[in-house]
Structure formats: C-alpha cells, structure tokens
C-alpha cells in the first residue's frame, strides 16, 4: 500500500513539474536527397523555388539547378550549403564510395541467399544418403583395430618393473 501511494505521488509530481524537459528543435520538414553511384555523388537541395546557390562550389552547377554533382568523390567529409533567397540549408556529407563496387538490387541478393540455402540443403541430403548405407559396415581405415585373435601383451622390461609393481592382475 505504501509503495502504491509513493508511485501515485511521484506520478502527480512529475506530471505537474517540467523536471528534465529540454527544448527540442522541431524536426526538419525538408531533407537533402543523396544518391551514390560508384564515385559520383549527387545531392538534391530541398529548396524548390528561386535561385539556388551551392557553397562550396567545387563543380559549377548551372543556375537554378537543385542537383549538386560531385564526380570522383574521394570519401572526405565536407560541409555543403544550398540557399534559395532567405532560406539556407546545411548538410554534412560523409559518404563512402568505391571504384570497383557493384550495385545489387534486392532481387539479386535474395536470389543469391536462396541459391546458397538450396545448395547447402542438397549437400546435406547427399551426405545423409551416402552415410546411411555405411551404418552396419566397419571401416578398415586408419584407427581401426584388426578383428580376430588378440595377441599377448609384451613383457615388461627390467627398468619398468617397479613402475607397475603395485598393480594387481585383473581377470576379464
């Protein structure tokens, strides 16, 4: 009962106080669109109207062009800004690109995974099928002892007698 009363009072206290609340910026309603293909990075500014100016101007985009194209991008981080009139949009670009990469769509990746599973299942079935016939048979490979009459053990040498002196003979 005391614990329930404590929780009730704590809930009332926290609901009437702004303890721990921090001002939060509203989420941006407009975002950059970044496309990566090989070593070419294409960035689209969220501004749609007016004269769009890109900073820094590595490649000279045409006026009113929303797309900013960086060819032969070297994966170094950059700060980019596009502005249109009084609106200014900032972006920190940290993209990894590679020259010898191949792009795969979801269908190709799922096909590779399914083919791998089918091949694994086929190998599993083959191993089961071929090992099923060998259950009753013995192998004569390495590690197998010969069948037949057991040979007598070798006698103990003179220097080894005291090691085995405390052992009593057992009957089988």
From TrEMBL:
Organism annotation: Nothoprocta perdicaria (Chilean tinamou)
Domain of life: Eukaryota
Leader sequence segment: 1-19
PANTHER family on file: T-CELL SURFACE GLYCOPROTEIN CD3 EPSILON CHAIN (PTHR10570:SF9), T-CELL SURFACE GLYCOPROTEIN CD3 GAMMA CHAIN / DELTA CHAIN (PTHR10570)
Compositional bias ranges of the Basic and acidic residues kind: 149-161
UniProt entry keywords in alphabetical sequence: Cell membrane, Membrane, Signal, Transmembrane, Transmembrane helix
Protein name per the record: CD3e molecule
Location in or out of the cell: Cell membrane
InterPro entries: CD3_esu/gsu/dsu, Ig-like_fold
Keyword Amino-acid biosynthesis part of the UniProt annotation: no
Entry-linked Gene3D superfamilies: Immunoglobulins (2.60.40.10)
Topological relation to the membrane, as annotated: Single-pass type I membrane protein
Region feature Disordered, mapped onto this chain: 134-172
């Amino acid at each position: 009962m005391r614990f329930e009363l404590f929780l009730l009072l704590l809930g009332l206290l926290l609901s009437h106080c702004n303890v721990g609340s921090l001002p939060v910026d509203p989420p941006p309603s407009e975002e950059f669109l970044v496309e990566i293909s090989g070593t070419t990075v294409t960035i689209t500014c969220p501004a749609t109207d007016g004269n769009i100016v890109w900073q820094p101007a590595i490649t000279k985009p045409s006026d009113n062009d929303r797309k900013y194209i960086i060819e032969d991008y070297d994966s170094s981080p950059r700060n980019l800004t596009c502005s249109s009139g009084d609106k200014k949009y900032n972006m920190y670009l940290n993209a990894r690109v590679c020259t010898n990469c191949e792009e795969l769509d979801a269908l190709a990746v799922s096909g590779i995974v399914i083919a791998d599973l089918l091949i694994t299942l086929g190998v599993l079935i083959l191993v089961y099928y071929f090992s099923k016939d060998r259950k009753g048979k013995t192998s004569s490979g390495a590690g197998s002892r010969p069948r037949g009459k057991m040979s007598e053990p070798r006698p103990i040498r003179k220097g080894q007698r005291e090691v085995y002196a405390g052992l009593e003979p057992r009957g089988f």
